[in-house]
Design a protein that fits this description.
- The protein is an alpha+beta fold.
- The chain has 5 domains: about 1-95, Uridine Diphospho-n-acetylenolpyruvylglucosamine Reductase, domain 2 (2-Layer Sandwich), CATH 3.30.43; about 100-220, Uridine Diphospho-n-acetylenolpyruvylglucosamine Reductase, domain 3; about 225-320, Alpha-Beta Plaits; about 325-410, GMP Synthetase, Chain A, domain 3 (2-Layer Sandwich); about 430-465.
- Helix content is about 35%, strand content about 20%.
- It has helices at about 1-10, 20-25, 30-40, 55-70, 120-130, 145-150, 160, 165-170, 235-245, 260-265, 285-300, 310-320, 325-330, 345-360, 395-410, 430-450, 465; strands spanning about 15, 50, 70-75, 90-95, 100-105, 110-115, 130-135, 170-175, 180-185, 210-215, 220, 225-230, 255, 275-285, 305, 335-345, 365-370, 375, 380-385.
- The strands form 4 sheets. Strands 12, 13, 14, 15, 16, 17, 18 and 19 form an 8-stranded antiparallel β-sheet that branches. It has a 5-stranded antiparallel β-sheet with strand order 5-6-10-8-9. Strands 1-2-4-3 form a 4-stranded mixed β-sheet, with helices on one face.
- The longest helix has 19 residues, at about 430-450.
- The two termini are about 25 Å apart.
- About 45% of the residues are buried.
Amino acid sequence: MIAAQLAELIGVEQVSGDTEVVAAYRFDRWCLKHWQDWQGEAMETPACVVRPRDAADVRTVVRFAAEHNVSIVPWGLGSGVCGGVEPQPDQILIDMSAMNQVLSIDEDNLLLTVEAGINGLVAEEAVAERGLTIGHWPQSIGISSVGGWISTRASGQFSTAYGNIEDIVYAVEMVLPDGELVRLGKAPRAAAGPDLRHLALGAEGTHGVVTSVTLSLRRQPEMRRFSAWYCADMASGFRAQREVVQQDWRPPVMRQYDASEVARLFPDYVQDERCLILLVHEGPASRVDAEILAVESIMAKLGLNPADAAAAEGWMGHRNNVPEWGDLLEQGLIADTIEVSGTWSQIDAIYDDVVAALKTVPDCVNASAHSSHVYRSGINLYFTFACMPEDASVMGHRYLESWDRALTATAEAGGGIAHHHGSGRLRRDYLHHDLGENGLALLRKLKQAIDPQGILNPGNLLPLADAD
C-alpha cells in the first residue's frame, strides 16, 4: 500500500516493492550483517525502495511519511560500516543514488555543487578535468556518496593537510522531517549564530535527508614526493609525527604502521621489529622540497632511520584495495577495523591497552594498528582485529566482544571512541564516553526538536532507550 501511494505521487518508475529489489537494501557494508547473511539468517526488508530524481521528489516522500507517520531510512551508496542502515517492513528506504549530477563547478571561487547521491570518485574526476581536486580521499571513495560523507562525518587519507569533510564542506541542502527544504551555508565564513551545517554533519540520516552539497575545492598540486621512515616502536613514531605537525609542516599523508602490520602489508620492507612511517608530500614545488628537508632533519634528530620511499609510493597505488567480508568469512575469519583518536599524551596508552584488550578475546589471531590522521593536538589510530573460531556460529559474539573491549579500553585511556566512520548501531551504546550523559541528553533534545515524530532513521545513532 505504501509503495502504491508513493508511486502515484512521484511516478511508478521511482518506487519499487519488488521482493528482489527490497532484499538488496537489507544492510550496507557492516561486517556483522554480512556474517548474519552468510550464516543464512533472515533479515527484514523495507516496505519499498524509493529513488527520488530531485529535491522535489524527496520533499514529496518526506511529507507523505510525516503525514502517515511512516519512518524513512536514507541510503547513499550503501558503503557504511557501522550499522546505520537496518530497514524494517513498515519503513520507506529512500535511495539517493539517482540524484547523482554535478550541478556546478565554480573555478573562480573554487566551489563544487553536486547532488547528494553522486559517487565520490565521479565528483573528484569531474573537477580533476579542470585541474582541481576536492582533496577528500576516503578509502571508500569509489563506492561512497558525497551525501554519505556528510552524514557520517567522513575523513579522507589526505586529511592532515586538507582537513576532514567538515573542513571542506561549504554548504548543505537538506529536507527536514516535516518536508521543508533548508540550505545551510552561504559565505566563506559566518557568525550568524551557530553553524547549522553541523545538524547534518554526522547525523547519519536522523535529522534530515541531504539533497545537495557544495564543497570548497583546491587546485591540483604542482609536485608530489614520498618519504618513509623506520622507528623502533609506536611511541617513538608518535613523537616524530607530533614534532612534524607541531613545527607546522603539513604532509597531507602521515601513516604509521606497527610491526605486525608492516609484516602483513609491507613484507618487502620489514626490518627487524620496527614500525614504519609513510609520508606523502605535495603542493608547490618549493614548499615540498623545504618540507622534505625539514622532515629529514626532524627524523634524524629523533633517531629514526630512512626507509625506501617506494613503500609510500606503493601504498598510493593499492591503498583502496581491501578484501570483501565474504572472502574473509570463507577463510573462517571475522574481522573489522576500529578508528579512534586521542591526544599525544594519551595515544601511547590507547595503542598498548587496545591491542592488549583485543588479544584477550577468544580466538583472536590478529590485533594491530596504524595511524592515519594527524592533528596538532593528537592523532588517530586504526585498529584491525581478526578472530578465527572453530565454530562459525560464535563469530558474531567474537566480533561484538572485540568492539566492546577496544572501545572500552580507548575510553578508559581517555580517547575518543569514533574518529570518522560515524556511530550507527555499532557505537551508539558507547556514545556517552564521548558526549557524556548531558551531551547525550542535548542530542536527544535536538532530535526531538527537529524530528518530533521520530520518523528519520529510528534506532540509529542514539541508544535505543533514548531513541524511542
